[in-house]
């Protein structure tokens, strides 16, 4: 089942009436991302500090203008991230938030709430996946309706260049800037989780 009318979350300009395949390439050393279409044309850049205490990332358009700002909510047990319009961090500019469905997870599951959804009971989107397998699926609500799918693309070149490459298939009429933001949040949550477990292992040894 595919969305019939455009689902604009970040902006209508990021909704296409056809499937959009994007490549999200993460530079391992800097933690920054570039997002291209299948022809290699730049769509977005993602900037931010991998080791930032405040967990802040900004998605920029081709001209370098901020589209959305992603912020990790401090002292949030479920790794809640909030996404704001432009470079804002004010409540009036909140677009959506995402959090892990539970504190302890083997397979990642995020619940996504749009800004006008003040209830934490019913989510607007769900992200399910195994970060170990580098794959995930984005669903509408808590249903089985798929709106996007991601998998990691392995190549000798990407390993040599120190880059991670994720291929994301975004379904027709779904806001692909929104989907990219979800993938970045998923990567951040799992990166911080890996850092924490690594620190714990070092402490124990």
Describe this structure in words.
It comes from Handroanthus impetiginosus. The chain is built from two helices and twelve strands. The protein is of the alpha+beta class. It has a domain at 18-97 and 149-204: Porin, CATH 2.40.160. A twelve-stranded antiparallel β-barrel has the order 1-2-3-4-5-6-7-8-9-10-11-12. Strand 9 (125-130) and strand 10 form a beta hairpin. The longest helix has 29 residues, at 176-204. The N and C termini lie far apart (50 Å).
Give structural attributes:
single chain; 205 residues; Porin; 12-stranded antiparallel barrel; disordered C terminus
Order of helices and strands: EEEEEEEEEEEHEH
The CATH topology of the domain at 18-97 and 149-204: Porin
Shape: globular
Question: Over all CA atoms, what is the radius of gyration?
Answer: 16 Å
Low-pLDDT stretches are: 195-205
Largest sheet: 12 strands, antiparallel, barrel
Alpha-carbon distance between the termini? 50 Å
Q: Which range does the strand content fall in? A: 35-45%
- What is the annotated CATH architecture of the domain at 18-97 and 149-204? Beta Barrel
| DSSP strand count | 12
